[in-house]
Amino acid sequence: PTGELTGDYATMDTLLRDEWQSTFCLYTQLPAPIWERFEERYGQYFPRTEAMQRTALTPARLREILRKMKPGTSLGVDGWSVPELRSWCDELLQRLCDLLHTIEKHGTWPEAIAKGLVSPLPKGAGMKAGQVRPITVMSVIYRLWAGARVRELIEWQETWLAKQITSYRPEASCAETWWEQALLIEEAVLFDEPRLGLNFDFE
User: Fold this and answer.
1) Mind listing the pLDDT tens digit for each residue in 74-94?
2) What does 162-203 look like in DSSP terms, one character per residue?
3) For the segment 168-200, what is each residue's pLDDT rounded down to a tens digit?
4) Is the Cβ–Cβ distance between 149 and 54 less than 8 Å?
5) Alpha carbon of 181 to those of 163, 167, 185: distances in Å?
């Protein structure tokens, strides 16, 4: 096998590349964003907070996360699956914990784990290349690590997050924001008061 795409696969690959290549390769034509420039412009608005506290990862903690992960979830480029990681003994999981601690310390992921596969999902508008939503499927090992750290991340962000932000936080949702807006509109209608609003949907 040559690994080349043929037939319908090659056609779909071409359609997706034509539609999405400019988005995914945006910074081959434009200068890449620079953190220092962003910090200089918006740093005054950054919340001042203590660093997030992390507890040591353990085989038991990884098993807890693996039990919650769907066994048939898509594979990343490294090929590891949830059932395979579930079958590991504690000694292997401890070595994985050691690897993840090293990654956290140095801030660099191995290429096989850091690389994602882009898959197009339908959005309901149609099945043309421009009507699908490309999602990135990461390694199961990366998703396992993220699942282990997300609880600490949520607890940390609660120490500084503005109350108006309702996304991805416990016992809150964007529905609360819309209910509040709906009540304000209803009040304006009842009392014949002018009210103006703007909605931005980044696409």
Assistant:
1) 899 999 999 999 999 999 999
2) -TT--TTSTT--HHHHHHHHHHHHHHHHHTT-----------
3) 888 888 888 888 889 999 999 999 999 888 888
4) yes
5) 15, 16, 6
